[in-house]
Structures are given as structure tokens and as C-alpha cells.
Amino acid sequence: LSELKPSHLQAYYAKALKEGRRDGRGGLAARTVSHHHTVLKEALSHAVKWELISRNVGDAVDPPRAIDKEMNALDPHGVDRLLDAARNTMYFPIIHLATFTGMRRSELLGLKWENINFHHGTVSIAQVLHCLPGGRILIEPPKTAKSRRLVPLSPAPALALRAYQEMVEADLAQIGSTLTGDRLVFSQLDGSPTLPNTLTHAFGKIVRKAGLEGITLHSLRHTHASILLQQGVS
């Protein structure tokens, strides 16, 4: 610790920005590296308090400045084009639900049938699904109380989910099985989960088919917010 210099931190940040991704596909975002700086600086402040070092070298280093990207949102015409392109694919139900609820990818993939209340028109966000390095699937409760919430389910996505539920029940019946509440909504026929990267890749293909530019799965959260604003919702 006593040999740590500001130049060491600066070199680490530069390398992280250039080649910091675990998958070897380039660098980390400036915002991510800025978070690293925050953690390191806080850790070093404890080292100063414990008299392990005499000064916090993090104070002498400027972290990368995170630049907020302008997030694209679809207008009503764009929503129609996206849903038309997805309609005859297995991903139509999840894209439809994402568009009209603003749910995150991890929330959609972790959703179980028991979390959907058609009578009250709500979706309970009770767990999220992540794919860890090495391919291990982790399903766990959301990390914050704010993330654990009830999402209103308007008539359009409710009808789409009902139709999808009936299709799943029919498919399961053909193999002598039944639909249970603890089953993931967007899973394979054998019950295995849909992988996050699989969904992202499929969504990209659908977006290109629809002729839309700069639209990601996360863009659908902004699209949902825009829809609510247009409806006069705060």
C-alpha cells in the first residue's frame, strides 16, 4: 500500500477503459470505471484511518468522466413496427410485455406465472434472473426494496399473456405435463430458462428486421415511460 501511487490508479483506469471486459471484447464503460474509482478511494480512506498509509492517492486521480448516452425511445409507429417484426417469433410475448410494462431484462426472465395476477391486473417483481460468468444461472430476489414492486398490467399485455399462457398449456399437454405457478413464464418447453444473451441477440435481429436504429432492450423501458407521459401519467 505504501508504494501505491496515483500513476498506478491512472494506468489501471486506462487499461480498464481499453480492455477491461471479462469476455475480452474491449473496454469497460467510463461510468463503470468511475464506480471502480469510488470503491478504491473509499477503501484507501479506511487504510488512512487505520494508519496503514499516510495519504489517499485516490484524491490525486481524476476518474473517467461518465457521459450519459441519449437513450432512444420508440414512438407509436416504431412500437407497431417492432411488434409486427416480432409477431411470428417466440419472443413476441416477452417483447410485448417489456414494451408495455417497462420491466428490465432480468425481471422478465425471472418472472414466474404465480407472479401474474390477471384478476387484479398486476405483475409482482419478486425475483430476477442473471447469468454468471461460466454460464451458471442465478435466480434471486431483487437487491433493493424499490425493485420489489407491483407493475400494472394494462389490457393489451394482459390479453397477450393470456394467449401465450394458453399456447404454453397446449404445448405442455402434448408431452403429458401441466403448467404450474412456479414455472418461469419465458422458459423453454423443458422448463429451462431463456438466457439473457440469447434474448438480447434475438431482439437485435428483430430490431434490424423492423428497420429500427439504435434500439436496445433497455430502450423499451424508455419507450414505456414515453407512452405513460403521452397518456398524462406523472
Structural shape: elongated
Beta-strand content bin: 5-15%
Strand order across the largest sheet: 1-2-5
**Unreliable stretches:** none
- Biggest beta sheet attributes: 3 strands, antiparallel
Q: In whole angstroms, how far apart are the ends?
A: 50 Å
Query: Helix content range of the residues, please?
Result: 40-55%
Rg calculated over all Cα atoms:
22 Å
Number of helices: 8
Based on helices, strands and strand pairing, what is the structural class?
mainly alpha
Query: Helices and strands, in N-to-C order?
Result: HHHHHEEEEEHHH
Mean pLDDT: 91
By DSSP, the count of extended strands is 5
How would you describe the overall organization of this protein?
- With 234 residues, this protein is mainly alpha-helical.
- The chain is built from 8 helices and 5 strands, in the order H-H-H-H-H-E-E-E-E-E-H-H-H.
- It has helices spanning 6-19, 30-49, 76-86, 92-101, 105-109, 155-174, 196-210, 219-230, and strands spanning 116-117, 122-124, 128-131, 137-140, 150-152.
- The strands form 2 sheets. The protein has a 3-stranded antiparallel β-sheet with strand order 1-2-5, with no helix packed on it. Strands 3-4 form a two-stranded antiparallel ribbon.
- A hairpin with a 5-residue loop joins strand 3 and strand 4 (137-140).
- The longest helix is centred in the first third of the chain and has 20 residues, at 30-49.
- It starts with 5 loop residues before the first helix and ends with a helix.
